[in-house]
Model the fold of this input.
Amino acid sequence: MDFNMPEETQEIINGIKQFINKVVIPLEEENRDLLYNERKYYLEDGRRHPKVEELRRIVRKESAKAGFYTMFGAEELGGGGFGPLTALLVNEAIGKHYPHRKLIEHVVIPSPFTNGLTPVLNGLKQELKDKYIEGIGSGEKTLCFGLTEPDAGSDVWGIKTRAVKDGNEWVLNGTKQWISHAHYADYCMLFAVTNPELQAKRKGGITCFFVETKLEGFNVDSVIPVMGSLGGDATIISIDNLRIPEENIIGELDQGFGKAMNGINNGRLGMSGKCIGSAQWALQKAVEYSKIRKTFGKTLSEHQTIQNMLAECALDIYAARNMALNCAWKIENSTKTPTKEISMVKAFCTEMMGRVYDRAIQIHGGMGLSNELGLEEGYRNARLVRIPDGTSEIHRRTIARSLLKGDLSF
Ligand SMILES: Cc1cc2nc3c(=O)[nH]c(=O)nc-3n(C[C@H](O)[C@H](O)[C@H](O)COP(=O)(O)OP(=O)(O)OC[C@H]3O[C@@H](n4cnc5c(N)ncnc54)[C@H](O)[C@@H]3O)c2cc1C
Done:
């Protein structure tokens, strides 16, 4: 076993840090007033200010030119083809060194499966690849992932958006909810029922369509602000007689469910990496503060209760980091997707981040609650990540089902 950071990955991380320090941070500083004041950052309807979107577009394009934006895309799509281990470590580094930045997360590197050269696009027909991939890879155009609906979240087999064949086109009708970034996206990977009988048996019947969001019949109705924000990334979409040509089916007809799950699995590891990095940042803050803040004539770090809290954070982070690394290694070195392990990593890392931020806030006392240090923002984020990409309960369900089917391997 070799636990060293691969040299190539270390070089990539150094390169990204250099890029962020040279290109992104100066742009953020120039626009600090807009970016770090939510009343300016969001419009009244919860969308980001167009100037913010323009800044994000600039960073995406610069990152694409530098090769970072596309590094996890498949080589056939013009991406760098880097695997889950690199994705985990790069996301960890970003979470650790640049938490709570407005032009970094989901911008320097796109959100793992919902944007950029996502693996879902591997199934596009060649003529559509020729037409769309360059724009997506350059960061000029963006995507969203339209699966969840008002009555179907955890149980995605329950989606109701229906696609009916009409000549050489499919006509889609339905409602989607919680779709991230749809209000800015140029294209949507939209999931609809094409064969209700297969869907009822949970054996297929759901198809993934590549959709231009400017088409008549694709409407972003509203933004859902979440966790104390004045705006948000999640949206509600109505699909109203949206006509999509047959060739816009991604992959096989009726086989969209596997596509959705494969995409989401990739995202789960990237998200876990960010949680691990961000938790390390919070622990570092707590350690530093504990050494300077005095109570009862001693620094906090001299009180055993505080030492225990710091140690609990380290236990959590070390466990999370190593299980995620092991899982990434399993994905890269096995022909079978380690579904049980991916679920363990997603559930553990997101929950771990919440515990670490909770202790870090507690160690900071009142200061921990102020919105100046970034700890309360991280805490809100930690609470949020336990829901998308599979809730903690659904991951426990997946783990238990694997165990009960006889998979007791570790
Ligand atoms: C910020 C955000 C961004 C998102 N982005 C996207 C996106 O871009 N695209 C997209 O398609 N979706 C997106 N989602 C949707 C997300 O995937 C769903 O919210 C998630 O799958 C949970 O579905 P739900 O909210 O309908 O909860 P429900 O499925 O209604 O579950 C409610 C509660 O019941 C629990 N529960 C459900 N079934 C079981 C069970 N069998 N056993 C035990 N407990 C159970 C759940 O864990 C949860 O606690 C996003 C969600 C959020 C919050």
Strands lie at 143-146, 162-166, 169-180, 187-193, 206-212, 218-223, 234-245, 249-250, 294-295, 298-299. The radius of gyration is 22 Å. The mean pLDDT is 95.
